[in-house]
Amino acid sequence: MKILALAILPAVLQAAGTVETLTVAGLNQPVEILRDKWGISHIYARNEADLFFAQGYNVAHDRLFQLELWRRQATGTVAEILGRKELKRDIGNRLFLFRGDLVQELNWYHPHGAAIIESFVNGINAYIAETGRRPELLTPEFKMLGIKPGNWTPSVVISRFNGLLGNLNQELDLALAVRTLGVEKVKDLSYFQPANPKLEMDPAIDAALLSRDILELYQAYREPIKFTADEVASAYRDESTILARLDSAVETPSGIGSNNWVVAGKLTESGYPLMANDPHRVQQVPSLRYWVHLVAPGWNVIGGGEPALPGVSIGHNDFGAWGLTIFGTDSEDLYVYDTNPANPSQYKYNGGWEAMRSISETIPVKGEAPVTVELKYTRHGPVVYEDQTHHKAYAVRAAWRETGGAPYLASLRIDQAHSWTEFRDACGYSRIPAENMVWADVDRNIGYQAVGIAPQRPNWSGLVPVPGDGRYEWDGYLPIKALPHVLNPDKGFFNTSNNYLIPPEWTYKEALHYLWADPYRAAGVAEFLSSGRMFTVSDMIQLQNNDLSIPARSLVPLLRDLAMESSAAQEAQDRLLHWNASLDKDSVPAGIYEMWQRRLLANMREMVVPKEALPYIGIPALNKIVHWLEAPDGRFGADPIAGRNALLAKSLEQAVAELTKRFGADMGKWKLGAYHHALIHHVMSAGLKPELRAKFDVGELSRGGDSYTVTATGGDDNQTAGGSFKIVVDTEDWDNALGLNNPGQSGDVNDPHYRDLYELWARGKYFPIFYSRAKVESVTEKALELRPRP
């Protein structure tokens, strides 16, 4: 590959003085970084090592504080800066550290994995060293906390704390619900696919001893970090009060999701396939994902990934484009052990006592002496809780602790795939998270491959805890390529939205999992793509921002001919019955419907979930509620139809009362966007002075849609999760790709790219993702040459 010199960059750049040259220790040859008008760095290197060194250096320049929080979570050193309240987080992180063969682990992700990750880490550390020489490069967060960034190692990159890992919390809650209500009632209230899984607990487990305390350490290390005023330097702190921690978007299956699809050339105007992806995660600033373009001999890939990881996890190269959503496998189990009354570090296994393995670690704690902790492990995994009074211990078996369990890193192999076959082979290394991978290529193929490490359970469902006495063992892992896959489907497209995707004839029943998303987003995408139209990139953008509510088309007709007590509710009813079911932010009926849906779901939960089970069972799946409302049974009372109708009317009256309270009696002010918006809180927001909080937070702008629309904006007033990163790729012309990244590429509040993409995102507008050198140069706003330091 020919690498062009900076000297031939457009004269306008040279004249504007936007070309900068830096010398950096650790490089072998010069590297060019062209930053475009939307903050994307296009990195041109002459060899692989320099390419990933430059990726690390570049991302550290843009996201250093984000990387520092990542490093501290990955190493279990958060208490060092935030004190004892973070000790449990650090213990949890250290409990679940990967402790296997590091070289084997790194090379799992790519044949050159160890060298690539080492180069990436060296690039990060080179920028950190630069901040040591030039402290003014540090972003304000470091000054607020009085800390400096620490050096990275490959072990930080392969951390698992950031992964979407399994169903352990659901497993414990299901057990607590079964204890409270019994198996059949829990099945009635839950949405399992396939239906009717085994929920009975083994008689050896004393269900009375189960509690959420068991997973306290596991939960602590996975929670987002939030700061309070007492942790911020006085010059920046809100002294008026020590603010409580912000409510945050905890990443649960109900709060996250994703959409992706591929469309074959026979359904596109160009005759070439299209690929679209909008993964849904927490909305945060800086954003969870980071765009980059990597060019070197053997590499030419552009797209997004988590900033702490080398490579690109969603994007395209010269040959094909790919995207992902969460497929889901049950990769975790909670094991319950009897321990030896004479020695609590021994547990019963196969009729004898087996000793736990122990590791001693010392954890630094701000303001006090370091704390030494003993980490214990059974043959199945980390011990997360010990009940010495009842001689019990609880451990987590997690498939993601195996080699290859670092989230998204196997994308390095995908980045170099030249064909569907090579893509699918690369997918065979992608263990975590479990994903629906879609592919579209220049040879006009489209395909789908589910990936993930899937334990095979020969004698239980994995939905409730099991004894660790040897009777419940995994029978290895299902080969990834045995998971569902499709090549060039007859219908001309394939779409996924975390919905149930197991074919009826699939034979690997021991590797099944049972918890999937509601089908509405997937149904909305399939309906659009089945319309018979010939599609373009613009159509894909329209679909990614589709606010159609499929549940509304089932629920609203149930209001017809119902008597309402108030005239306002009667008018609201009439508006809904003449509405097109689009949750547009500027629509009054959409605002009425969304508030009605909220009240309806809350009232249904109150009606069907016994009070004693409320801590363990949330709102039942919406499609179950729709079914109950369409075919009411005895749960609605002696006259099910009358009871159903009363609940529908009551919920609408409550919605109207709430909207009146908020906006007055003028229904013209009841638009959905009047109360459904996006306001993104910086991680330190709660502790900052009001004027600084306004500077660091991003927002707020009105949003349409809700949790069940393709655009997936959530069901609360503030959108806390959803698609912050979006991409649409045209395989006929790589320069015709478009994308989003909310709220911007930079994590530096003083950088123009900190929030410059927020309004585009909020309005469903996209920016070009240019790929060819000529197009990149045409929109370059700054050029940087990194030269080796002698």
Keywords summarizing the entry:
790 residues, alpha+beta, 11-stranded mixed sheet, 23 helices, disordered N terminus
What order do the strands of the largest sheet run in, or round the barrel if closed? 1-30-2-3-6-7-8-9-17-18-22
**What is the rounded Rg?**
27 Å
State the secondary-structure class: alpha+beta
Distance between the termini: 26 Å
Low-pLDDT stretches: 1-8, 241-254
Average residue-wise pLDDT: 94
How would a textbook summarize the main sheet? Answer: 11 strands, mixed
The number of distinct helices, counting runs of at least 4 residues, comes to 23
What overall geometry do the principal axes of the alpha carbons give? globular
Strand content: 15-25%
Report helical residue fraction: 25-40%
Structure description:
The chain is of the alpha+beta class. The strands form six sheets. The protein has an eleven-stranded mixed sheet. A hairpin with a 7-residue loop joins strand 27 and strand 28. The protein is globular and about 85 Å long. The model is unreliable at 1-8 and 241-254 (pLDDT under 50).
